[in-house]
Here is the input.
Amino acid sequence: MSSRLIYLDNNATTAVLPEAVREMVPFLSVYYGNPSSAYSLGQESKKAVQSARRRVARLLGSLEEEIVFTSGGTESDNSALWSAVRTSGKRELVTTTVEHPAIHRFCQELEREGYRVRRLPVGSDGRLDPADVARAIHSETAVVSVMWANNETGVLFPIREIGEICRAQGVLFHTDAVQAAAKVPINVAEVPVDLLSISAHKFGGPKGIGVLYVRQGVPFLPYLWGGSQESGRRAGTENVAAIVGMGRAAELASERIHEYADRVGQLRDKFERTILAGLPEVRINGHPTARVPNTCNLCFQNVESEALLLELDRQGIQASGGSACSTGSAKPSRVLVEMGLSVREAYASVRFSLGWSQTEEEIEQAASAVVEAVRRIREKLPAALAAK
Ligand code: PLP
Here is the structure.
């Protein structure tokens, strides 16, 4: 590995912000009490959890009581769908073809148990038409689950419109906002969602901690049973240090979100412009503007992403061929194929996702490394293939 890392895979995970680490450390050593214990050591932990809850609630525009700490995005997603089908007693779910495996795979499991899942297709720009949601809902629909932003392309979904449709039809609405939180403003006071998932490690918090937002009044059945933590909605001793880290990361995100959008968005656009100007036959996968500001998914004709990623890794540049959860699988990206890319185009695509601390110099260096690496790979192509 090169000594200087340029990390462009922030949709897979982010470094924990130093401010979050600083606040977490005492809760691993000094204040190790169980928040359920009545004595003062326990009460210190309880106060820290409450403070983190306040900070996360501020990021989402919610009430503190609507925040349920979980072990991450996957648990939040699974438990949201589980609760919706169990509390409604209905047998059908409406979702999209491009959800993260935390929704996609859980739906497959529900299908095995006899539930019906309608997966709505997206257009070639990765977007969903809200009218399709309205048409898909009927009397047996337990829940609609549509992601706020796609993890591979960054494409944003029309969450407000979908929420309004669900509310008008009296159907629960869940959104996986794992890739949207801290990148675009989220305000559940203004957007009619009932259940919403986020994960700390996507915005500068630690791994293994997330939140499920449950709107007040929405029926909720726990996924984990045991103690009465999280007001009986999620059993298990709280991961206090991680919760503290998530709270601090959420607080920083609330303060910096507009600056993030401007700064990271400009760097992402510069990165894309440089590559598009330096190379023929490169295309942006997904809508060019309706995207979170940090994500750039590019299709390089006649280039195998595997070869490009290896070459970039040799130079210390970290990016990915799809979502981190599918790395190592020989399959092409399901999301890109669902958007209408051929299997070959999907294999020729790379996701670059920028982070908060990215510098202009890093972006310039990475963009020219991509241009040179793609040129080298294409030069080695047999003439017959290149002509295709
Ligand atoms: N949903 C989306 C859109 C994601 O991108 C991810 C992580 O990649 C998850 C859910 C799962 O989150 P976690 O890694 O916290 O379980």
In short: The mean pLDDT is 95. The domain at 6-14+257-386 is CATH 3.90.1150.10 (Aspartate Aminotransferase, domain 1). The pocket of pyridoxal-5'-phosphate is lined by residues 72-74, 77, 100, 102, 147, 151, 176, 178-179, 199, 201, 210, 323-325 (CB under 6 Å). The chain has two domains: 6-14+257-386, 18-252.
